[in-house]
Batch of 4 targets.
Target 1
Amino acid sequence: MAKALLSKLKESLISVLPVTAIVLIISFTPLVDLTVTETVAFIVSAVLLILGIGLFNLGADLAMTPMGEHVGSGLTKSKKLLVLIAVCFVLGVLITIAEPDLSVLANQVKDIMPGEGDSSKWLLVIVVGLGVGLFLVFAVIKIVFHKDLSTMLMFFYMMLFAVCAILAENGKFGLLPLSFDSGGVTTGPITVPFIMALGVGISSTIGGRNANENSFGLIALCSVGPVIAVMLLALTTTGDLSVYNTDIYAIEESLGANFGPLVLKKVGEVALALGLVVAFFFILQFIMLKLPRKKLAQIGVGIVYTFLGLVIFLIAVEIGFMPIGYKIGTQIADKNPTLLVLFGFVLGMVVVLAEPAVHVLNRQVEEVTGGGVKKREMLIALSVAVGISIGLTIIRMIFQFSILFYLIPGYLISLGLSFFVPKIYTAIAFDSGGVASGPLTSSFILPLVVGACVSLWGNTEIYSLAFGVVAMVAMTPLITIQVLGFKAVASSKVRTKIALRRILSADDEQIIYFADKGDSND
């Protein structure tokens, strides 16, 4: 166990260290002026973030992934489709409520949601959870009845953009970027391993020649549900979109006398969110799963690690990364907005290069494609693409135009490519949006863009101009992986044609010579 924990801590160190180093380096330049308190708080929060992500990832391996696989295979073996659908819906809701990335985002936008205080935050979280639960049902139906993923994605994205039109017609167009961000943060570090494991469990039990292909695509569909759900919720919002509460980024709000209450609050939130998932799992264990005690003990240890990791992660984000990201954004934008575009591009490249899940994805794609897409070219393509997506987001914020100028062409290209590449590439591409938009996107890069927006335009246009960065990062792999897949397929066809041409143009005399030579040796 100690060896596994050390490995996870090493992964999280590699993930957090580059961003930390960049921030500390830039703090010694005239572009950014951090106080001693802010610098110390950021360093301490970076250490806590490394510890939190490490513990959380180990807990996900020990608890969340096995829970998903056992639930998926156990329910499928029961051959009761309605039970499978009902349980998957409830689990989709509960696992999303426990998602840390969603909690970070909800805390930043709770002021415009119906209700007051934390109740408005929980309303957003629950609505997103309902969206995930419903579309997880669609994903399970896809596996059970072997439906085509590309066709389903085309249908649901057309539905999504139809809801966009309704949102615009009702004067809520400013919440469109937030809606798309909700889809990006939902597929976070706790949701992805659980739902993917659930798909593997169901697909492996059903079997069939396309079992591996059918296990992908669940995350793709579950990313659409939250976007539509938040758009529908946006129609009921009563908050003033021209006012954004930037007090949540004040570092004083989480230090000193406020630190103790912050810790207790995060412990309570995580206990409630994670406790719902665990309680439901053990109900299933008692009724139908009947796992051995040894396996339950492993899952129990994993749950403890997950709980500690989540608490430490959320505390680290609130005391250091969100405030410092916001301040860097305001100061660089105030001095030189052009440099902010370059800074965003570099941050995007570093965040993806350092994301452990991206390396897992790269190995997975190389194995599935039989080496047609190399890990190295995949990593380079993803890092450059994510860097460009963050740079484009900042450009959009500077020049004040709609995010739809990016999203509509991006999704049209993605959906169009799905009809020209093998289905496995499409499934992996749409699943991997959550992999690219890791924890640092919502906890550091989003506050940075918000800070830049406040510096340039005040806090009246934040919802329409600053939000959308998570959506852009999540959209990047949809195009990148499919383009690499298209390239691999095209290269394979070219090599096959060249080989056939050489065979057909071979000299008949040489063929006869070798045949005669073979006969002479007999």
Target 2
Amino acid sequence: MSKLTDFYSLQVQRLSSDIALLRRKNKWFVTFELLTFCLAIIAFILYCGWWRESMAMILTVLFLILYVVVRRFDVKNGKEIDNRKRLLIVYEKELKYHEGDFSVFNRGDMYIDPEHAFTFDMDIFGRDSLFNRICRTVTTGGKTRLAHCLCNLLTNKDEIRRRREAVDELAEMEEWRNGFLATGQCLAPDGSNKDENIDTSGILDVIKEVNAMRIAPFAMHPLSLVVAYILLAGFYITVLLSLFTSLPSGVPVVWAIILLFLVLSVMSRQLRDISRAVGRLHTQLNLYIGLVRCIDKADFKCEELMEIRRNLLGDNDNALASFVRLSDILERLDSRSNILGLIILNILTLSDFFLVRRFLRWQGSYLNSITLWTDCVSRIDALVSMATFRYNEPLATEAEVTDDDEKVVFDAKGLYHPFLGVKAVRNDFTLCDCNYYIVTGANMAGKSTFLRSLGINYILAMNGMPVFADSLKVSVFNLFTSMRTTDDLSRGISYFNAELLRLRCLLDSCKQSDRTLIILDEILKGTNSLDKLNGSRLFLREISRFPVTGVIATHDLELSKMEDEMPDRFHNWCFEIELGNDIIYTYKITRGVARNQNATFLLNKIVNDNGKIVNKHAF
């Protein structure tokens, strides 16, 4: 982890130095642009005034050419600055990740669903959640795809293997992966990070809208092309005749004005319609095209990534060909904001006329493929996030997914919660199919965190991502949890009623699945002790009729007596504490029933210390 922190710090320093150097170059380019532009105007004034020599016109053209050349270098330098800024943002975020600051990443609050089978209890979404730590997506489609993967676990061993191979391959492609993320970073006008994703659905809507436009169909007629070439040829002929014969210099000037008037009057409205459609997502669309280019340049080896690339770039009418043509149109549209450039290019090349022709040719792209293409980019985007998580957690290991789909298999060595880091206490734990594990222990002893360690590592394993254990062997099964039930006053649902509804959902899920692991933290917390005990026993006896394996944390030591009733199905485990002058928490799970509790001990400390809480230790 220290090596990764040093690596990211070094990249931040290098990129900051590069940006400073490029900015100094930018100042020189601006100076030369102003100089060549002014000299071109002076030379043209001399030509139109008293110095009517051909040399003045030649100098005008030369200075204009120099202006265009310097301008191109300036634009290229500006793009390079933006590229380095985007990459700098990526590395700065990763540096914050290793400092424990996840606020720069998306929290996924919009995906929080208290009724989901496990995501709400397992802290999958929200502040400092698993999604918050994994998500690096640069498109809204990729973000949704990543959330979908965490909510809907893979159920086929081959699919899990393919996903894992894709994640591992991308994790090794550090330069490409961060280049992909940098390409998708949205910059504010001042060059800072806008901290927003490329709107995948918005881009899809714009492409469909633009593709449906019917603009200037006459521009594609062969006669229009012939007329355009005749007009251009006439202009260049008059320029040459005015330079080398007695033809008045005003003739090419008048011809140029006529050319400009014709092309702007006929084509400007058409181009404004296109600009209006793409204007609201112009920048994002260019970034999206950049992502497609990144995928095109990648040399993928694994099956999953090659399939995505093949669907995206597999034939002549592929996404890149279509998007490149659209990118060219967008760049031409963008250059029209430069009034001088607009005038010069329309006079010299009838640029607006040929821009409309390019747009009409682009409309021949396969619109039906666009949905597939955007889905491919979203899949790559989500996989890049998973791979970055894999790269940032070198101490995590790969889970072994067994072929046994007839029973629940969960065999962990050195298991710990990914949020706790390397200082976490590790535990060995094995679940046997259709067995139940009653976990007792004092408050803050580690029961709930241990239960979440079981669930969250299984979620990672089923997504082909690394797990936080020395080793983990699992089969494919259904997961259902009930740990964080809440009331809903807006719907008149009390806490106890909410618990009952959750348990009903659990039963329905178990009835519909071949194999299920349930993770419960205190059954029926919202009722009195005796009723809670009797209800818990009733529920566990009922659920044991199904092919279900369960881990149940409880403070009710009486529930542990179910091991005496069914010793072949129920087993007692505990997190024990040691009481002395202070409380010692081991956070190690062991066989048996917890003997020591800490509530009375802590309350006694509060009373004896005049209300001061002296033990602030919490798991």
Target 3
Amino acid sequence: MNKKIIGVIALDPFAGKAYADQVRQVFGSRAAVRNYSVMDKTAENMERCDLYMASTDAFDAMKTWPHGIPEDAQKMEIQVTYRKEAIRLLREIPSGTKVLFVNMTETMAREAVTQLEQLGVTHLKFILYAPGCALTETAKIAVTPDEERYVPKGVSRVVNLGQRTCSADTMIEAAMRLGFEDILEEEAFKQYQESVCTNTYYFDRMFDRSRRLETQFDILMEVLDQGVIAVDEQGNVYAMNRMARDITHVLGEQVLHQSGASVFPYIPFRQCLEEKSATEPKVVRVAGNLVSVYVRPVLRRESCVGAFAILQKFSEVEQRQNELRGQLMKKGQGHRAKYCFDDVIGGSDPIVRTKEILRKMAQTDSPVLLIGETGTGKELFAHSVHNASRRKGQPFVAINCGAMPENLLESELFGYEEGAFTGAKKGGRPGLFEFAHQGTLFLDEVEGMSPALQVKLLRVLQEQEIMRVGGSQIIHVDVRIVAATNEELEKKVEEGSFRQDLYYRLNTLPVWIPPLRERGDDIFLILEHFRRELGGRFVLSEEIRQLFREYPWRGNVRELHNVAEYLNFTGHTVITAEDLPPSFQMRQRHWAGGKNEGHTVADSNRIRSSSLPPDTAAPRTASDARMVLLEILFRADREGRRIGREGIIREARRRGFSLTQPQVRKMLHSLEQEGYAVISKGRAGSTITQQGIRLLQESKQIDT
């Protein structure tokens, strides 16, 4: 094999010798390497070579190839780079450090720094310097490609990167020109290539990132618990994960590069690609299973470059929704039934019969309607029905329909989408029907629901579907309804304020909850439970026990609890008539009426004046209740505030009169119609009018 001659030409002799040594390192005995320099004029008298390699700065200095080089000779330009060791030294310098970059000329310094930045050295602030340049900034560190002789005085540290070296691309080009392609497989070239940096730093980073992303994409596709099928802009399948193969019963290798619309005609790939928008989720039957399918486009600027189809078995979709609801409930919602039938205290025939009936009804999924006076424990029975049913491990959600304005009740029950109304939470919010999925929803005071909400509730009972406020998507729910009312719904149906069809839906399994006055000695069992709960030590005299048996207990168990709490603070161990609460005494007097001839008018006046606050009288009739309500509105008006129904109920209780939400609502409506009060919408409360104040003055309820 004839030895080839390579002529290496550089601007200065030092660089020429360095480049020549590098070429010798790669080509070894295959070539004789001669080095020449422009500065020492050896480049003007070069012998004939098989290949002439000139550095960029040498070529710039010569303007053209020397005339002594034959026209037919092979010529190439040397591309230089840094050794990896030089880049490592620079990376050890802290980020943001000012460094002086020193080279023979300012142009060479600028070109060298540009190349460093192309190689990823962007963390340093370079200050260019060459002999003859003005030094406008100072730095403690100087960096130079083997030009230490030009480093100005005063620099405390010099980092010598060494002469830049021929790039691996230059060596490859030289080998190809000389017919030494096999040299690229030799160890000498591989070692040289490993020691120098490539000028494709950012390309390599992008390639590595792309390769990592592709690997991550493959991993993500396989760990997803949803089926994913990806198509390109032409609609051809290029990816399909294991879950999609399981759902569709199609092998991924068989469909790659085929039309997604042809292989999967039930997936709207073409629609998504043409409209550049997501398709609505739909349920289709695939391989014998119901599958939820939707397609999302991949957009780059305004172009659609592909799409992803998401598939999930419908049963798994419902399971996921249940899990999400469960997570939301754990974040403070706590929708769990607390009581069971064993917590219902009493052994009287009415209550035993009620529990037996409800235990049987609990085994069905039909709606249950609990009918009873206020305070009879309807919610306690609702909890018990849920815990005795097959749904006991699922949510129990309770809401009072009479205590909320219509718009608030609707959003609480059905949820809302983002932007549905002013103040709507970002991302929307599930409603109580969704929270109660596969469980029980207890609607207390269901008679307080507006006609519009009655229509929506009827649809839920018929179709088991809801739609959030401001939404368009139908959501399937599986909810058992237990409703409660303390009013006669049949009468409200006759009046037209409650839908007849909804009434018959709710009235599938009606149950009357017996009032306390019909439960005999259950009164004392319940009172004893309250006494222990409150830590009291009192006992009832026989006289009081008989009085309790005859007392009407209009507030039922709730009123009994209030009495127990009052008796706990009398300080007496044996309770007598003098220890009873004032309201209890007055109502008992009114109930007894004229039956007890031993009571005189003077006795009644004495008890009345000693038992009640000086500015109020115990209400005894519906008319009295109206006047008490007006007087409460008057006091609130004098204090500069409005008062809502809950506040009215609390104030009335303080005056010894127990009112329910429907009763207060009905009385307020009547007073407004007569011009005595004004009812505001929402939570703004109600207020008394001047006409109402005059009525109080005329009836001597307030001072004139």
Target 4
Amino acid sequence: MPDGPLPQTFHTGDCFEAYRMLGAHPCPSGGWEFALWAPGARAAAVEGDFGGWADIPMIADSAGVWRTSCPDAREGQLYKFRITGQDGRAQEHSDPYAFGAELRPGTASKLCRVDNFSFSDEEWMARRQKNYDRPLNIYELHGGSWQRREDGGWYNYEELADRLIPYLLRQGYTHLEFLPLAEHPLDESWGYLVTGYFAPTSRYGSPAQFARLVDRCHRAGIGVLMDFVPVHFAANPDGLARLDGTELYEHPHDVGQSEWGSLNFNLYRGEVKSFLKSAAAFWLQVYHCDGLRMDAISRALYWLGDEKRGVNPGAVDFLREMNEGLHRRFPTAILAAEDSTNFPKVTAPVAYEGLGFDYKWDMGWMHDTLEYFSAPFGRRPGLYSRLIFSMNYFHRELYLLALSHDENVHGKKTILDKMYGSYREKFSQARLLYLYMYAHPGKKLNFMGNELGHFREWDEQRPLDWELLRYPAHDAFLQYMARLGALYQQHPALYREEYDPARFGWVEADQPGLGLLAFTRQGGGETLLAVFNTQNRPLEGAQLRFARPFEASLLLASEESRWDGSGAVPAGRLYCRQEGRRGERPYLLRLDLAPLSGALYLLEER
């Protein structure tokens, strides 16, 4: 750690490595050095295991950086800063730049080294891409409630790796995305109210164990994405809140507090921008993470997320600067925005006046699609246009289709339980929904438990209901999801050039009363046909017209008996023949579709 003043880039907001200069670092000669940015403080001290928790005074430089060294400090020991404001009030705070943390409810920071991890993922890192022309099928996971030990305790990071990696490979996922793992005091926040932006939560083990989890995922061919929270932070008095007795990290005035009771970052202050840019870079650099999903971006684009309040220009500039800097440093890492607004050019490069994200969550697709499948059958003709509306705009951004944790909590019901109808109809529709999702242009994300056919809403205090797999419908649904994941990776028409509107073609999207829907996808030299009956009555002799003759080979039918379906499936091989009218589409293909069923075909020209 340098003893001199921080570089000017830290104060201007252009620093991506502030974690190398602030916080706690081992001294070459033994012991540890401490550095704290607290320009409004009257005094500061460090206290910890190494000094019997007595105050060890720190000395400030002209930029408000307080420093000291403790020759008796050792890795693994706990510590805090005691910071006295100008009003004379002293408050203990955890280290904003700490690499480790005490297990909650404790709030101390922990002395940890992160410069000695051993990775063996060179091959993965060399061939890593943003997956624009590769499959991207993400499994979103909460580390403490996927599975648990028999005694109810958490698995640590390495134990999770033992169980997760084989499961992800069987289910056809390409990437694992963790809900925020940065240290947080409240389990119920799911990690979205952060106090330790540089510390993997101690709930599941040590920083070294997390590094080994990432390394093992990479060696198995699985990417690891982190959910990152750059807009707001926990209001706990022992964290970043009023760190030096002033509104240092938080934005002042009426926009300083979020709807969740957290504090909004002051994205106009250079040192705060450097803090967040460094935290984002930290997970990519130190832990070899493959990308970041940025949470609550709408709350940065607009003041408090309210479009009526207008654009927040300083926050927009911050996002552009951060994304541009991260792309420059980590050109193959993925940056995804969770954004529900119509803000333009979210996934356009900064050089072209975009925000510089690689992908944007398609929240409109999610809302419209789930509304359709949760509606009674008689109401569906009036919602048909909403079901297909996403096809009008899928090429405007690089979209990611997400059925995330947010759709499985707070009384919204789980994905399966959202489906309208009887028990069997719910499963039929869930299979239909997921076939529609995987055939639709856009990358994919599913929250853990969706693939089990979970009926109980997610609870962070309980593991998933794995006992559901004793029941044929749930076990078959898990196998169905694995088959979809495999087909998605095997067929380039589902992921190559998927945002090119010329690679998508409507075959039927004008029969709302029938609930019939069909389209083609092209890519990698192949053409696929996806066809859906979204109503609860059979379609016999459904007619689909094409410009050229095809032979259609069935790849998947959602009502196959092996998926615990009705067993009523369309023919395995169909022929498209010239019939009837002449014109742009003189070739006719006929097929029968069971109620609430879909099919995926490979088309080969004859």
